[in-house]
Amino acid sequence: MTFEIIALLCLIAFIAGFVDSIVGGGGLIQTPLTLTILPQIPVATVVGSLKIPAFFGTSVALTQYIKKVKIHWKLFTLMASLAFFSAYIGSYFLTIVNNDFMKPLLLVILIGMGIFTLLKKDFGMATAKTINKKKLLIYAVLISIIVGLYDGFIGPGTGTFFMICFVTFLKMDFLSANTHAKLVNLATNFGSICLFLIKGKVIWAIAIPMAISNGLGGYLGSKFAIKKGNTIVRKFLIFVIFLSILRFAYDIYQTF
């Protein structure tokens, strides 16, 4: 691995960490670009290696957000536990099954999410609301399992999916949803990391320098988001959804 390639991967990781810390979706930048730069390395090994910088960057960003946002620790400990095991199972499936069949469905979902976010100007901008405890628990369990499986099986955009689910179903504002999304996303990343470590799918020469760069991007991005508030998070969300649509549309095109 040459110095030039490592430097380029670190730049990608920094940008991904910055974007991910604001609205999630760093994997939409980090994963496809790294796969392009390292075509000789098996996909599962690249994905496994990228889970390390993703985990580190999210951790750094979270340390900034929890200083400003109140965490519902009991609920999100449950969600993190469920998401961990779901991601582990999803990553196991990734090692034995191709995930291309999911991409057309995700493309349709993302287009719908993009239109909804653009048209609903107050989405995630209002003050967080409380909902019925039973309904809250049901939504929390379903979100953890479904998005956790997605993260292990496909991956890119997990933080964004968590965030949108928290705003839509748990009635949080953007900053609160982003903070809690990172908390649960840490668990899904850790679940995947455990599986990839067991399978020997991590290249530390790539993972460590990218983790440092991703962490720096996460630190600066979280500071920026906290300073600018919900408005800037909404703009980044629209950007990441658009990026997601392009990514999955391209993947589908490549299969034909």
UniProtKB/TrEMBL annotation:
InterPro entries: TM_pro_TauE-like, TSUP. It is a multi-pass membrane protein. Keywords: Cell membrane, Membrane, Transmembrane, Transmembrane helix, Transport. It is found in: Cell membrane. Coiled coil: none annotated. The chain crosses the membrane at residues 37-63, 75-95, 101-119, 139-170, 232-250. Pfam families: TauE. GO terms for cellular component: plasma membrane. Belongs to the 4-toluene sulfonate uptake permease (TSUP) (TC 2.A.102) family. This is Probable membrane transporter protein.
